[in-house]
Predict the structure.
Amino acid sequence: MNIMTKRISAVFFLSLCAIVLFAIQPSKHLTVKEIVITGNDTITPYEIIKRSDIRAGRTSMLFSTSEAKQKILENPWVIKARIKKLLHGKIEIDILESKPFCIVTTEGRSPYYVDREGRNLGVIEPSHGLDFPVISSREEISSGLMLQAIEILNLSKSSSALGWSEISEISVEKEFGIKLLTLDRRFITFGKDNIRSKWYKVEKIISHSRKKNLVEKNIDISSGELGVISYDS
């Protein structure tokens, strides 16, 4: 090896060492100095930072935004997450949270929140609110019946005849299907299947009753064809 080759090799080696040192020793431009979190309401900033593993003082080159995003999305309350590395050591984390839509209670299991899509958001916390309709059962609820119960609640959100805030409880049983209880103690029996069609018939029954100044006590629409109605005397 001649002198020129040795010099080139030495320069290459020193350059490589400099690059390695630059990556390991964070510069003032690459060190995480500020983490800004937006979009969170229920989830604490500490929870987001802990999951993402992004910490102040860490070199921003040494973490992957895609990996940090996936870790944040493991929290059931998070629907979407966006992470941006900005200049001067600033990291922006923006999340979209799911919202509790109802509470589910079954025997032998702690009550838990569910969102409008049927996702389990975890055990209820008083600080997150308790004023939600309840889906209840004496046994584990099948996914099919759970989705039917949630469909009723979604339909009630845009209903002028029976609104979401008027619903107290939806009882779900494998054998009999779905029965709804309102806050003013009216019962509506849906049975199983064809929930949307049955819901629209219930709306017509309630609207017709109100025009006649009547308040129904029980509505049984489980047959899917005719509604059996009893009124308060």
